[in-house]
């Protein structure tokens, strides 16, 4: 755990105020995070980030824990658990859930430079807030979403954005594989296939959840378990990538 950093509470109050400048209906207590949202946060924040950001904050759940003021002893305890993000969020909601808000969580994610997590979770945050405001005032003041450890545990089948929007794993007609230098051309192909032929294409930079330590393994799983075909865009840049060549060979072995 990084013991010190150059941030203090005044450094992120501005970010919190930026989110709180919305009307009340654009925010909700932290206790109204639903289990599916917590599950996605666990998927994104459990992978350990070794290199801290420029302010010395770790870019995983430990950075959030440090910002929340949790003691180092508690953090060490959470580290010993299979799902430390879940344990931390459960503790944070119990201690400060009625005074902290969903937009405070957004602000904290920004402070630790996890804008990818902000983006990936944003639709679910918005749904949680809408659910809160759909309740009558008496219910809002008395209730919170009950935290269910089993429901909030990491689901290793949650690999893509589509998985967070359905109770079953998302399936695709094809996974498109290309070199970064060919991304513009690749997206033209994706747009044509989706718009004109109504095909569902899985695109790494668009559809995969951020935060994975083993991206090539995730892609391999998606190709094997979720896709009917692999579409590879061969180019000089593509052929320089050993990872791309491996995935093409892997798909051929699967007879895709």
TrEMBL record:
GO biological process: defense response to Gram-positive bacterium; innate immune response; MyD88-dependent toll-like receptor signaling pathway; positive regulation of canonical NF-kappaB signal transduction; Toll signaling pathway; toll-like receptor 4 signaling pathway
Membrane-spanning residues: none
Pfam families: Death (PF00531), TIR_2 (PF13676)
Record-level GO cellular component terms: cytoplasm; plasma membrane
Record-level Gene Ontology MF annotations: TIR domain binding; Toll-like receptor binding
Keyword terms of this UniProt record: Cytoplasm
Positions of the Death domain: 60-119
TIR domain span: 170-256
UniProt KW Cytoplasm keyword: yes
Protein location: Cytoplasm
InterPro entries: Death_dom, Myelin_different_resp_MyD88, TIR_dom
Protein name: TIR domain-containing protein
Organism of this sequence: Allacma fusca
């Amino acid at each position: 755990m990084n013991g010190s950093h150059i941030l203090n509470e005044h450094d992120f109050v501005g970010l919190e105020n930026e989110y709180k400048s919305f009307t009340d209906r654009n925010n909700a207590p932290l206790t109204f995070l639903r289990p599916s949202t917590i599950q996605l946060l666990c998927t994104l924040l459990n992978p350990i980030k070794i290199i801290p950001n420029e302010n010395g904050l770790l870019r995983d759940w430990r950075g959030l824990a440090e910002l929340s003021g949790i003691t180092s002893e508690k953090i060490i305890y959470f580290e010993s658990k299979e799902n430390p993000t879940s344990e931390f969020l459960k503790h944070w909601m119990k201690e400060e859930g009625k005074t902290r808000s969903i937009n405070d969580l957004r602000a904290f994610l920004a402070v630790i430079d996890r804008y990818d997590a902000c983006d990936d979770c944003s639709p679910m945050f918005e749904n949680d807030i809408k659910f809160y405001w759909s309740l009558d005032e008496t219910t809002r003041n008395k209730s919170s979403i009950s935290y269910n450890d089993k429901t909030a545990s990491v689901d290793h089948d949650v690999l893509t954005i589509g998985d967070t929007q359905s109770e079953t794993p998302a399936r695709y007609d094809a996974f498109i594989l290309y070199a970064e230098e060919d991304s513009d051309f690749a997206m033209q192909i994706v747009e044509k296939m989706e718009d004109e032929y109504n095909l569902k294409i899985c695109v790494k930079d668009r559809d995969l959840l951020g935060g994975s330590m083993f991206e090539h393994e995730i892609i391999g799983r998606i190709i094997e378990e979720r896709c009917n075909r692999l579409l590879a865009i061969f180019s000089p840049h593509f052929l320089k990538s050993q990872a791309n060549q491996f995935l093409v060979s892997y798909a051929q072995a699967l007879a895709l």
